[in-house]
Design a protein that fits this description.
CATH class of the largest domain in chain B: Alpha Beta
Low-confidence stretches of chain A: 291-301
CATH topology of the largest domain in chain B: Rossmann fold
Number of domains of chain B: 2
Largest sheet of chain A: none
Distance between the termini of chain B: 58 Å
Largest sheet of chain B: 6 strands, mixed
Number of domains of chain A: 2
Order of helices and strands of chain A: HHHHHHHHHHHHHHHHHHHHH
CATH architecture of the largest domain in chain B: 3-Layer(aba) Sandwich
Radius of gyration of chain B: 19 Å
Structural class of chain A: mainly alpha
Distance between the termini of chain A: 66 Å
Oligomer: heterodimer
Strand order of the largest sheet of chain B: 6-7-8-3-9-10
Strand content of chain B: 15-25%
Shape of chain B: globular
Radius of gyration of chain A: 27 Å
Mean pLDDT of chain B: 90
Helix content of chain B: 25-40%
Mean pLDDT of chain A: 84
Number of helices of chain A: 21
């Protein structure tokens, strides 16, 4: 039977491992499924909204001349191709560590009576099935929208040919995205030194995820780029979805889009060649490329191993160092931090791209004035990044190893541990984003930016203390269950809090921009509030034991209908 | 002295440990034997303070774990059964983390950590993350971490697992020296030979209860009064020959 053939069995195993979340317990994995289902329903809701928008747009275009239709449809098709490209690339990037046979495969499978070719054939089959599933699934999702855009194609030629050209170009785009990710990982295999291979490959994965999150707002802007396509804007040469939209038009006989089509074909060919090259090299040197020392400490650590752990309170210092080293070496946690921070950054990038840079005076009140955007942006980043970094610190590194923290827990240490968590959030969610935005703010706001920065930092501190008030865990050591609450309710509540927060802080920051004295007073008041919260947190942290097992809240909500 | 009185542990409806009592005197090495599922690991987790007993009490040098778990745990060094540690750290980083969590002075750590790494033959690998370590190397790091604060009680759960011959002999000699200096050593294992060579007393556990407690010197080297034969009787182990024959039949069939 074919299904019992070793390659098929192995391919099924590899395919399942591409979906393995790894760090989650059974309870956590169940919870994650609920979160993903919530996300899927949000995507469907967004898709329905898009259908309405496209129906209205193409309804109007049906009465317009064919030139108007052709002008609009290329930008919309670039968008419809970009969506599957992004999802497929994200799925492949998330599965990054499983794209090539690795050391575990080598150790376990090469000890079995299996040929190396069987292992590689199974891996490739799993990878192709995985990528094919996402390519097919995402195209099924965009099909209703594509059908709407193709209705007007009757004016310019055959609808069937137009549909075939769209599907061919869009599938090619998704294939290019999938193979592109494999090729980037393949380059890590080809170029990375043996000793640093896993670390290098991990860094590539983190950068890919970060990059994908950051370009998401650009994807959503594609439908508004009809003018850029009409004028052959320079940046189209650097925008992969535009290449494939050009390929579609070229397939339908529009020679003026040939230069975009050439880029699409070249990029896909290069990605395929690199991916194949990486597989061939790994196939030939499976034992040498994978069988190596994964991570080594940095030179600085070698010279002064104790110095970095010496700072401040012993337990707090040790936990801070543990956080730093974990973030430096754990691909999962790097990915979470980079992914979550770039998600916040992408929102800001989107607003900055939409800003009216002509209205750059400090008193501008328009929503798209740079000064308004730059007062709103840091608050949005703080609002998103603080819970995001807290979440990243909650995801465990190796649950079974946390016994050492459980055995050495003491009363003073509890407060120091809480401080270490707060310190990490202050650094990654407040200091880093504010420092990144500061030069741009200084450029627009001039010297008045100092007061604004002071107030922003104080707001960040208060927000961190508020969000971390109940923090009772050593980062990366507690069981984690995603989506513990009712996700839709949490989204509505968070949105309401976001509106109130950005409105209030917007007023405070505008006042700080106008009057430095107000900035100073506000910063002092906020710092005092933060100190009060800090003291309360420290007091409560000492009184409560550290948390190592996260609990799912009870599913039962007693109605208490009886008087007793 | 370590005193365990009436230790009982329930996991839901499952009684894992039932009224287990024993003492451990300074200078003594006690071997803790028992088949899988007999409650050995549960006892170890209770003794090191990672689990709370459902009933019964534990005290070490007069400090009851229920009264002051922090002071109780401060006196213990523990080597777990599986080499579970934060493998993304280097051996030096892990020992520094443990030392700081135990609030040892920096000067002490700077003296002890390189010495322990050198003596346990981890010096050459000190800059590598422990993901690259063999099981034996990780085990040696855990031994170093357990000894770092010079504890009164050492709790070892299969400490020889994965160690090569040299490291095993070194650890055995070290444990004997530690006992001679007055440390208490609680040694959970499946290996009769190690118990015979290392321990002064043995406790055999079966189905959550103590089935046997005796001085090692009282066992005969072989025959029906040997440690192995006594263990098999005390824990009601089946006759293994028919079982082995069944396995042979199973792999010989189609």
């Amino acid at each position: 039977m074919l299904r019992d053939h070793p390659v098929v069995v192995l391919a099924r195993h590899f395919f399942a491992s591409l979906f393995d979340a790894g760090v989650l317990s059974e309870e956590g994995a169940e919870s994650l499924k609920r979160v993903l289902l919530g996300g899927l329903s949000l995507a469907i809701a967004g898709g329905l909204l898009l259908v309405r928008i496209f129906m209205a747009k193409y309804g109007e275009l049906s009465a317009a001349p064919p030139e108007a239709y052709l002008r609009e449809v290329i930008a919309d098709h670039a968008f419809l191709m970009a969506l599957p490209m992004w999802i497929v690339a994200a799925a492949m990037a998330l599965a990054g560590s499983s794209l090539f046979p690795d050391e575990t495969d080598f150790r376990i499978l090469m000890a079995q009576p299996l040929a190396r070719a069987d292992v590689f054939a199974a891996k490739l089959a799993a990878l192709l099935t995985f990528a094919g599933l996402f390519v097919a699934g995402t195209h099924a999702g965009v099909l209703p929208l594509a059908a709407l855009t193709l209705l007007g194609a009757a004016k310019t030629g055959s609808i069937v040919l137009a549909a075939l050209a769209f599907v061919a170009a869009s599938v090619a785009a998704s294939v290019c995205a999938a193979v592109g990710v494999v090729a980037v990982h393949g380059l890590a295999v080809l170029l990375g030194s043996r000793r640093r291979l896993l670390a290098f490959s991990g860094a590539v994965r983190v950068l890919l995820i970060g990059g994908l999150v950051l370009v998401l707002p650009l994807v959503t802007r594609l439908p508004a780029t009809a003018d850029a396509f009409a004028g052959d804007a320079w940046w189209l040469a650097w925008t992969p979805p535009a290449w494939f939209a050009g390929l579609e038009r070229w397939l339908l006989g529009d020679a003026s889009r040939g230069w975009l089509a050439v880029r699409a074909v070249t990029a896909t060919g290069a990605a395929i060649a690199i991916a194949i090259g990486a597989y061939v090299r790994l196939y030939r040197r499976f034992d040498r490329v994978t069988y190596q020392t994964p991570v080594a400490a940095r030179t600085g650590d070698r010279e002064r191993p104790a110095a970095a752990w010496r700072r401040s309170a012993p337990v707090g210092g040790a936990v801070r160092r543990f956080v730093t080293v974990t973030l430096r070496r754990s691909v999962l946690h790097q990915g979470l931090v980079v992914g979550l921070l770039t998600a916040a950054g992408s929102l800001v990038l989107n607003s900055l791209l939409g800003a009216d840079w002509q209205a750059s005076h400090l008193d501008a009140l328009e929503a798209d004035a740079p000064v308004v955007v730059l007062l709103w942006a840091p608050m949005t980043i703080l609002f998103l990044s603080i819970p995001a970094i807290r979440l990243a610190l909650s995801v465990p590194m190796d649950l079974r190893a946390n016994w050492i923290f459980r055995m050495t827990e003491d009363v003073e240490g509890r407060a120091e541990v809480a401080d270490a968590g707060v310190h990490a959030v202050l650094w990654w969610a407040v200091a880093v984003p504010l420092a990144l935005l500061a030069p741009l703010q200084a450029w627009i706001m001039g010297p008045a930016v100092l007061g604004v920065l002071l107030v922003e930092a104080a707001i960040g501190w208060v927000l961190v203390e508020r969000q971390m008030a109940d923090w009772r865990r050593v980062p990366f050591t507690c069981a984690y269950i995603p989506g513990k609450g009712f996700v839709p309710q949490m989204c509505v509540k968070a949105f309401a809090q976001y509106v109130v927060f950005t409105v209030l802080t917007g007023v405070a920051l505008r006042a700080s921009l106008r009057t430095p004295g107000i900035a100073l007073v506000l910063a002092l008041v906020l710092a005092a509030i933060a100190v009060v919260l800090l003291r309360r947190r420290t007091r409560e942290a000492k009184a409560m034991p550290l948390l190592f097992e996260e609990q799912v809240p009870s599913e039962l909500t007693p109605l208490r209908l009886n008087a007793d | 002295m370590l005193q365990a009185r009436g230790l009982t542990k329930r996991y839901g409806g499952l009684l894992a440990l039932d009224q287990v009592s024993f003492d451990l005197q300074p200078g003594e090495i006690v071997g803790y034997l028992g088949p899988n599922g007999s409650g050995k690991s549960t006892t170890v987790n209770l003794v090191v303070g990672l689990l709370e007993p459902s009933r019964g009490e534990l005290s070490l040098s007069g400090i009851r774990v229920a009264d002051d778990p922090i002071a109780y745990k401060r006196q213990i060094g523990y080597v777990p059964e599986e080499p579970t540690l934060y493998a993304h750290l280097t051996a030096g980083e892990y020992l520094m983390l443990v030392g700081r969590l135990r609030r040892l002075p920096t000067a002490t750590l700077e003296a002890r950590i390189p010495a322990l790494l050198r003596l346990l033959q981890l010096q050459d690998s000190r800059h590598k993350a422990m993901t690259a370590f063999s099981k034996g190397m990780r085990q040696r790091v855990l031994v170093a971490a357990a000894l770092l604060h010079n504890p009164r009680l050492l709790v070892l759960d299969e400490p020889f697992s994965g160690l090569d011959v040299n490291a095993g002999l070194l650890l055995r000699t070290l444990l004997q020296l530690l006992a001679r200096e007055g440390r208490m050593i609680f040694f959970s294992t499946h290996r009769f030979d190690m118990v015979e060579k290392l321990c002064s007393r043995v406790i055999v556990l079966s189905s959550g209860r103590i089935a046997l407690e005796r001085r090692v010197a009282d066992f005969a080297p072989d025959g029906p009064e040997s440690l192995e034969a006594t263990f098999v009787r005390a824990t009601h182990q089946p006759d293994f020959e028919p079982l082995a024959r069944e396995i042979l039949d199973a792999i010989s069939g189609t």
